[in-house]
Structures are given as structure tokens and as C-alpha cells.
Fold this protein.
Amino acid sequence: MAISKEQIFQVADEMDAAGQNPTLAAVRKALDGGSYTTISEAMKEWRAAKAADNTPIQEPPPPGVMDKLSEVGAEIWGVALELANGRLASEREGLEAARLEMEASRLEAVELADQLSADLDDSRNQVASLEGVAQELRAEVDDLKGKLTTATERATTAEARSGEMERRANDLRSELDRAHQEADKNRQALERVQEAAAKAADTHKAELAQAQADAKQAAKDHKTELAQSQADAKQAAKEYQEQVEALRAQHSQALESAQEAKAAAQAEAERLAAVNSSLESKQAQAEEKLAVLTGEVEKAGAERDSALAAVATAREEAAALRGRVEGLEIALSRGEKGDGSQK
């Protein structure tokens, strides 16, 4: 809203009546704003009017002086008036020159004040804009701090998970090594049992062959004795029959022993084969678990590396934003200092 001259005159009169000097800044402050140019023009008129009110009145000499200086008073008074008017004209010329100089200075000061006021308004607008940008950057910094905290927590969790996976993998490797050792022991035991069974079978075969050879030799001897002595034929035949039956019994026992040893060897071989198959199955399962855990360890390592990379990126972004915020705060502080100095 524009300020009228009447309002400016009223404020100047009130301040003058209160004994205060109505300067441009004081009048503008009392009006709560306004253009320095408008206030300056109005105050110029107000001061001119006040100066006119204070101009001394030219009056004739008082009656007492005229009575006492009846003869020479008028002449002396004329000379005094002439001197006074001459001095007054000289003073008026000096005052006019001083007034013109003051007017030029005043106009320059008014223009400077208007310029400073506009610059101050621009500075305030820039400060407000920078404060908004600073608030946005602070919010962005806070958001990045939250992301940095989350990424750090994820990295810590990934590292812990990776360590746990590595421990589980080491446990499975140890278990797999023990399974391999046990399988080797069982294979060695199976080989020893198979060797013992083979040796037992060979021994029984040799005994059976020897028994058959003995039986053939005995039959041959009995045939020779039968040819030499027919009297002892029945007895020899009986003894031969008994020996044959004994040899058959020995042969049968040898066969049974060999079959039992073979069956025991086969049973032991089957048991060891089953144990070996179970160990191989466990070994395969352990290897599958190890492969799965190895994949999980690699995945956890990749997640950890990704989390660490995210943490590093977030830290770099936070550092860059901190630099920008610090630069803006420095600019704000300089703007505030400049605002204070202009005031």
C-alpha cells in the first residue's frame, strides 16, 4: 500500500513534537516501510515548511527606540538594516550552496538507500532459498545416514552369515574326511576278509585233493592186497569200505567247511559291501551338502561384497553431501553476516 505525504507529515510532526529528530530512517521505521525516495521528497517539503514558519519577522523599531533616537536613530537603524540585509544575503547564498550540496548528497544517499534496500531484499530471498536447499540436503543426508546404517547392518549380518557358513563347511569337510577314513578302513577289512576266505578255500581245495589222492592210493593198495590174498578179501573189502566211507565223511566235512567258509566270506563281503555302499551314500550326501554350503558361502560372500560396496557408495555420497551442506552453511553464515552489516 502506497504511503501518502499526509501520513509522512503526521509522523514527522509527532516526532518533532516529542523532541526527536525525524530522520528518513526514523520516519520509515515509524511508518513500517515505504520508499526512501517518497519519504525523502515529503520530508523535504516538511522541512521547507518548518523553515518558513521559523523565518524571523521584519518589524519597524519599537516606539521606545524611536523616542530615544528620534534624530539619529532612523539613520543608524537604516545602516544596521542595510548591514544586516547584506550579511543575510551572503549567508543565504552560502546556505543555498550548502543546501544544494546537501540536496545532492541527500539524493545520492536516497538512491544508495533504495539500492541497499533492494539488495537486502534480494539477499533475504537468497538466504530463504538457500535455507530451503539446506533443509532438503539435511533431509537427504539423514536419509543417506539411514541407508548407510542399514547397509552396515546388512554387511555385518552377511559377514556373520558368511562366517557361520564357513564354519559349517569346515565341519562338513571334517565329517567327510572321517567318512573317507572309515570307508578306507572298511575297504581294508573287506580286502583282508576276502584274502582270508580265498586262503581258506585254497586250503580246503588242497585238503580235498589230498584226500582224494589218498583214497585212490588206498583203493589201489586194497586191490593189490585183494589180488594177493583172496582169504582176506572180505575183510579188506570191509576195511576198504570203511576207509572209503571215512574219506567220504572227511570229504563231506571238508566241503561243508569250505561252503561254510565261503558263505561266511560272502556274508562278510555283502556286509562290507553294504557298509561301503552306505558310506558311499553318506559321502555323496556330504559332498552334496558341501556343494550346497559352498554355493551358500559364495552367495553370502557376494552379498557381503555387495553390502560393503553399498556401504562404501553410501559413505562417499554422505561425504559429498556433507561437503555441500558445509558449503551452504558457510554461504548462509556469510549471507547473514552481510545482512547484519547492511542493517
